[in-house]
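We include the entry.

. . .
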Amino acid sequence: MASIRDYHRPGSVDEALALLNRSGMTSVLLGGGTTVVAEPGTQPVEVIDLQALPLGGLVADGPAVRIGATNRLQDVVDAEMVPELIRTAAKREAPNTIRNAATIGGAVAGSNWESGLLAALLVHAAHVELMSASGTATVSLPALLADRSQLTGCIITAVVVATGGRSGWAGTGRTPADTPIVAAYARRHEGATLLALTGVADVPLLIEPGDVGGLEPPGDFRGSAEYRKALATTLSSRVLVSLGVDG
């Protein structure tokens, strides 16, 4: 974690953006305060705390739900309007002490490669709303994870997810309560299937079911590349079959 040399708590999004985009300053955004997301080797940073900004709230809008960026993970767990798979993944993301502080925007910005929450968002066709000095934009979560430089100079304001369909997940960890070494999340809706995997790339990955065998995962102390690839194949098949799809 980078060391902190100064702290700001702006009262408006415009003020936060002005602080974030100051020339010559290395500033990072703080959502719930559980993690300072900074590049490895970053010099001491100035923190911009977003907790005073009006970026919360959950709103159902037809076949979608808009989740404000500063909603805590526990807010997501408790919200019946949020798809069940996302609620389950949010509950598994961290213990309750962390869930009551960590935010959905922070989870997206952190882009943890083992995040089941991000995988659940992926299969629910998540889009991320961004605000910058030049205005607002919406980017799909897969595109954002593939190119996180899009977050430079921006504040995540919300995550919008599709509802409907049938979904499920399967994972393998060292213990039932452990973060899975590899997990597969899937959703079937109106004849289309979305599949996402954790633990097989540097970020959770949305992948075509037929392409799982071509993965080349990184290995670490929790599982070799070969083991992770085997898990991805088995777990993908298992969750797809549970949804009535030929795995």
